[in-house]
Amino acid sequence: MNVTTKKYCFLLYIVITSLMLSSCLNKQLDDVDHTINVIPEIFPDYSGVFFPPNIAPINFKILEEGDRYKVIIKSSEGNPIIITSKSNKIEITFNEWKEMLARNRNEAFSIRVIVCREGKTLAYKPIVNHIAPYPVDPYLVYRLLQPQYHYWSNLGIYQRNLTSYKEEPVLTNATTEKGCMNCHNFCMNKADHFVMHTRGGPGTVLLLKRGDQLEAVNTVTKFNKAPGAYPAWHPSGNMVVFSTNKLALMVHSNRVESREVIDYSSNLIMYRIDSNYIETSPLIASRAYMENWPHWSPDGKNLYFSAAPKVEQYVDSVEQNEEAFYNDILYSIVRVGYDAAKQEFYGLDTVINAEHHNKSYTIPRVSPDNRYLLVTEADWGNFPVYNKSADLFLYDLVNNQEIDASEVNSHDIESYHSWSSNAHWFVFSSKRVNGLYAMPYFAYIDSAGNIKKPFLLPQKDPDYYKNCLNTFNVPELIKNKIDVSIWELSKKANDVRHFKNARFKPSENVDQTSGETITEDAKNSMYMNKNIDKDQAPE
Amino acid sequence: MQPKYQRIFIPGFLLISFLYFYFILDPVLFYIKQKPFLILNFEHVKDYIVYPAGLLDFVSTYLLQFFIYHRAGVFILLIIIGLLLLLTRYVFSKTANLKADQLFLFIPAILVLLIYTAYDQSLVYVLGLLLTFSLFGIVPVKYYHSVWFNIVLFFLYPLIYMVAGSFSLFFALMILFNSLSQENIKIWRSFPLFMVIFNALMPFGFALLYYIVPLDKLYLYPVIGTRPFFNLLSLLILGFVVFRIFLGGFALKRSLSLLTQRIFVYAFLSMSIVVILIAYLKSGDKKEDKLLLKYDKFYLSKEWNKVLALYKNKPVDAVHIQYYLNKSLSENDKLLDLMFSYPQRYGEVGVVLKGAYSIHNLQLLSDCFFDMGLVNFAEHWAYESMEKEGMNIYNLRNAINCHIIKQQYSLVDKYVYVLKHAGMHNCPAFFDDCNPGNLLKTRSYMPDTAYFIQNADPVQYLACQLMSDPYNEKALQKLVAVCLLNGDLQKVIDALKFFRIQGYSELPQHIQEAILLYAFNQKTMLKNNTFNGFKINQEIINKFTRFFKIVRKHKGDRRAARNEMNVALGDTYWFYVSYSMKK
């Protein structure tokens, strides 16, 4: 081919391409040239999903190549929503979306994607989704921070209105001398009953909001040298159980997830808000076991937690390093009864036995209807956030059997989770998109106990998650907006001189001088694999 | 001002500024010091809008990104100085017509030039100054501003405060003094003047308001007041400009004699210069700072020979400089030949950094581990660096490289997307390491052995590296260097098999020296000048003989032996073991 021919070929190519492009631009995308019998790839993956009827518009990005795009969202009631765009980012009009959700509750709807590519109009197989009959709690509270090891810089706890895209800071460390904050927890999904910790800034303190009362409490006592960590509100709102942990972050030499958190020692303590007392019991603070991740059943009669034998029991010799035993540590899910009238714990019951499954179970969360227990299952350890094997595990407390949760699990980490107050939705953290940044996913569970495919929290900009350099940590659903301002919380967190010091109240089972529990032998004999005698349990 | 002088002075001043920026200042060092990184996306940009002067900070960070290119940095600084000069001239021309302006005109620009002797100085300060002068240039200059003007100004102040931060105080005072400087001030109690004063105090009010509310740390962004030196400088510029306007205003009407003005002007000028010089001299260790930054620059741009040359001319006693030195030798494949030609004051830490020694330069730890193929540790410190030192192209590059090696392509995709929005993905510093050859090599070095870094010492994990991949040259070099520095000769001898595996026909000089010492300690004779199949150079044997002669000659007088040996044998391993090694 000589140079002149090449030139002509090039010109011809330019002309044809221009014609194709212009035809594409001029087309109204009404006449479909071809139908492709596969559903288009979109991000986030909103296909075959159940959405709550109060969720914000599910803007998404079409990952199929094209010059122009048209999206038709059809439902059985109401007009279809039609969006045409030169960009592959599809933004749905707020009012149209809300109207469709309102008129099609408990119905399916389809998303048809039409793409104009190289002069041809291609229609993909419609994506079918459903609108669930039950709404999700309208606010999600989470901590935003960068993927971390030891250091932190900017972080904060935020609340997001799920019915819109509005995100507001609850407390950020810009106002608390760059300190750390974590472990926000709510009593029965109530926005005005919450706790959160701040540390590393002006002081280490528990911020406790109960109704109109906001307090800053120092939970360190002679019993627990470390402050309370993972919290669990008693449904009465009068007591919070905390774990006290001795955690260390290690770095693996050759695992894909390089981080590992080892808990060397943990116990549970109770903070009685009205009396300002820290208490404990041998049943929840033993020398032989590590108790962690507490959670109250919605009726307040049982305290669920993770428990594993103490680290020392895994160590063969003094010289042995952590790499020799870290993946032998398995946590079971245990529950202990609580008599509110006597203010006492009684009996222990192993709900999910780690040794039976050869897995480790953490973060127990009972559904608000007391029917399901949602936990995180991993190959080892207490910190599933950094464990690639971590998945969600659902247990039917009524029929005492496992329920298939494979629909919500992925090849990557699924970890922290929280129930919506109506027990039909739960939110969980998943790192399935890129393996490092956790993102909040919502899953629907119908009345028959079937879990549906989860969806990623919608954002106004579909590229939000690509730009976002923060991980969504500890997602918690709440029924209302938190009304205490960032100013008030900051003021409390910074007012070191007025921190309220909790006092330790030794019980008869706790050594008065050392603060150690003393009846571990009795406890050990009843611990693990032993069911409590339900007839003996007080009403 | 006479135009003919301006025609000479302004270009002349700019030429001097250019020469200063181009040959003396080195804008790249600003980049190295500050490592600016900006993502042009609303999610990130909005963080800059919420605090006073945030927009200035945004523009400053954006412009500073280009300082990675020397010429771009010079150009930007020159434009800024030029604009400042022109704006000063414009403001003065509006407020006065003194003939002694030639010198006054250059004062703000000269003061700004002085600012840029400190490499941690961003462009916020000078951009704020430009903005203030521009605003003042726009405002009509007269003693009586209309009610409407003042009302508009009143409502504009919050906006000006958010854009210009504390520089709005400049602006307010310039307006106030301009009005007060006019002769016709008879209506002290009149509404316009009240508004002028009120408006002038507004920004102070805002500052106070932001201070009272709990978000003081977030919102009272102290453009003025970051450091004592800049406080002083700010006051000087403010005082000078206000004074100049004040003086100019009166001069219009009161016809002060030129002589009086000159005396006053020169007295003020001289005092200013003296104060500035004192402040400048007291402002600390800028020369050393520049030297350290030069080391950083050569290290980051992988100019190893320049690191070595700089060390020869201007050695610095610091852990990270020791690491740069050893790294440069290693990159030139001379670590085990020449490392004892240089002082080794920090032992193994000079070769293999440890957390506690490098807490102020976490990125360096990431580099160090990446170099050895300990990818998880490199990733660990890259992320720690992002938290502690802020995201920059160096720690992001390391994170991306680690994720490529670990085949976490979704993360790579995410970070490349971020980089494209930062506009720095074409930056040469970024692409240096991102070539498949380098990454494949590092990937082959990844350890097979599972352990936690907290539990491993350098000898342990370097040995693990070698067991996983006996061809890992970096691990072998570093392992042997560490053993030499620790005086652990047995481990050096144990590592000889890896030299054989890696195809060494002749051992590096310091290993040969170590072998001779080992043989002497073990009372072993070398057969045909060979040890374990490796030939020992006759010249090194001769040196060793000489070493012992000197030792014997001084019969236990360590100081005398050391002095004599330092000249001829100061670059040998024996000298290090005998006189420098910490035991």
Description:
The complex is a heterodimer of chains A (539) and B (583). The model of chain A is unreliable at 21-26 and 520-539 (pLDDT under 50). By secondary structure, chain A is mostly beta strands. Chain A is elongated and about 90 Å long. In chain A, strand 16 and strand 17 (213-218) form a beta hairpin. Chain A has six helices and 36 strands. In chain A, 46% of the residues are buried. In chain A, the strands form eight sheets. In chain A, strands 1, 3, 5, 6, 8, 9 and 10 form a seven-stranded mixed β-sheet that branches. Chain A has a five-stranded mixed β-sheet with strand order 14-15-16-17-35, with helices on one face. Chain B has 583 residues and is an all-alpha fold. Chain B contains 31 helices and two strands. Chain B has helices at residues 3-25, 28-34, 42-49, 54-65, 70-95, 101-115, 124-138, 147-164, 167-181, 191-212, 216-219, 228-254, 258-282, 286-300, 304-313, 319-331, 335-338, 362-372, 375-389, 393-405, 409-422, 428-431, 436-445, 458-468, 473-486, 489-494, 496-501, 509-521, 538-554, 558-569, 573-580, and strands spanning 530-531, 534-535. In chain B, strands 1-2 form a two-stranded antiparallel ribbon. In chain B, strand 1 (530-531) and strand 2 form a beta hairpin. In chain B, helix 8 packs parallel to helix 10 and helix 18 (362-372) packs parallel to helix 20. The relative contact order of chain B is 0.06. Chain A binds chain B through residues 146-153, 174-175, 177, 248, 250-256, 258-260, 321-323, 433-437, 461, 463-464, 466-469, 486-487, 490-491, 494, and chain B through 39, 41-44, 213-215, 217-218, 374, 376-377, 379-380, 383-384, 386-388, 390-391, 406, 408, 410-411, 413-414, 417-418, 421, 446-456, 461, 464.
